[in-house]
Amino acid sequence: MKKLFFPALVCTALFFNSCSSDDDNQVIDGDIEDQIEVPATYSFTRAGESTVTYTGQTTRIAMAKELKTAFTDFDNLTAMRLLDMFSNENSPFSEENLNSSSKSLKSKVASSADYFSTNSAASAAIKAEFEVWMNAQYEEVLPNQNTQAAAGVAGQIAQGDRTRFVSGKGLEYNQMYAKSLMGALLADQMLNKYLSPTVLDEGDNRVNNENEITEEGKSYTTMEHKWDEAYGYLYGDPSVPTANPMSVLDDNEDSFLFNYIRQVAADDDFNGLAQETFDAFKKGRAAIAVNNYEVRDAQAAIIKENISLIFAVRAIHYLQSGKESLANNEMGAAFHSLSEGLGFLYSIQFSQNPSTGGPYLSASELETYKNDLLTNNGFWDVSGEKLDEISQAVANAYGISVDQVD
Q1: CA 68 – CA 217 distance, rounded (Å)
Q2: How does DSSP assign 328-347, residue by residue?
Q3: Span 349-372, pLDDT tens digits
Q4: What is the pTM of this model?
């Protein structure tokens, strides 16, 4: 796998006893990491009871999947149904446990501590953009579901034996929603909230963790639970077993981050990504158990880098795939790829570069690229040169090359 190295991470990525005080880390006989017993699976207990739970994440992933399907359920499609699914109002889901849940997608979109705690205007704008896509699916695409799509005309377009439904710019709103949600909700919550020291160490979390003071009526400390909630945004689909998600890496029903970390890891240049990320989650959780917060934060940095990389690799992959399909006049395939690519591109604003504490590309840069792709007639007009330009900009930001991406 092509590894990305950042100068600010040198101390945390290698041997911590060379970068920190022995007194702070209670080093005995060498590396402080020797104190940490990392289990073979993601299994942690206290007094014989599992301390791992992330039901909220599983619930939101289930909501996200049903909402994605609802975009093209034209027999039942209304703008209000999509919006209600987004905010979990008026019992919109097929499963009663989702309707009765206090959770929603909208409440967690663009709401992380690191990026949005002091930027409510940006958070509101992002939530509103998701709602724009939902309204547009109803107002533009639904009335034209039986119309042949053309430049400036929403409708259906063939991709082999499949039918895609696109806007007048060639954009599939369901793909834009799904790929953007991976950044705006799953990654933003994982990287910029639950793996943030701001959240992990909030209030008395360190003291309580060190004294094994658990949450009321629970088997886990608050810090342990925050880490597990981050874990749930990657491994929370019900088809993925908690203890050993890697056992179903190639055989599961996830359609979000776990599915795409598999796809990135299938590329020879990034083939260690999925295993390294799982190992970092295990090691970070084990470090919490022995109050080793430097090792915890080093593992969080690995996870942030690796999850962020998913968005870059898949954005480049789909932009280049779209370019090839356009050259072959395969417009349905091109628009599908470009819709996915644009969604992954949008998600980069929620990535976190561990060496800077910010995204690999800014929201304003990504907005420019989005506008470049959707100007005038959008995908009907976009050039291969423009797709190469954006692909190269993403690769440069991450320190990889376009040629590495399959």
Answers
A1: 36
A2: TT-HHHHHHHHHHHHHHHHH
A3: 999 999 999 999 999 999 999 999
A4: 0.92
